[in-house]
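Q: What would this chain look like folded?
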Amino acid sequence: MATANQEKGLQGGTVRIASFRSIATHVLPGAIAHLHRRHPHIQVTLTEVDELHQLKQALLQGQVDVCVAEILEGEEFETQPLLQDAYIALLPPDSGLRDAQLTLEELTTYPLIISSHGSCADRIQRYLSEQQPDLTVSYRIRHDSSMTSMVQQGLGIAIMPRLAAEPIPAGVQVCCLPFHLARPIGVSRLCNSLAPPAVYAFLTALRESVPRSRDVQPTASLP
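A: My prediction, written as structure tokens:
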């Protein structure tokens, strides 16, 4: 009976996902396509949000089944690491640097641009304070595309996660930071929640389709 119910769920279930734009753009399409090749009748709804508190609210209010974004903290959440999204430096076209390892001194060549989102801004600011306390931030920008456009116009150097920076505008130079920094991406669900079979099928598809590259590294297996 249990097997029959599971198969029935995989024939017509729904998976409700909340995620950041960068993850919804570069990670989830591959996972959803992989899911649909195995279970074409499972439906997926995807909600894009900007802040971690919106992800938490969506889970707590039962609006979604899973969140795929930065790992949520709190005893009410069950989380599984998925990948490490490394931060990179985007430099203006006239910088003359490309695929290089920046020094802390070179970070001061242009005004510094970072995200205004809470978790991302806090993480970058903390590392900058540890590495070079006198390094100041000139711009705090909400949207990823606005940050890359400002770099393209020569207004500064942006520090961004690789997935958030892509697609990188023409002419913009990409360099490694003088320190290692990454945002942990994972899957979060409510603890002790009963997930339908479709959710577990999605988690399997997600695990099997995690991108593998120098800057985006898987960190653990999902159940």
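The mean pLDDT is 86.
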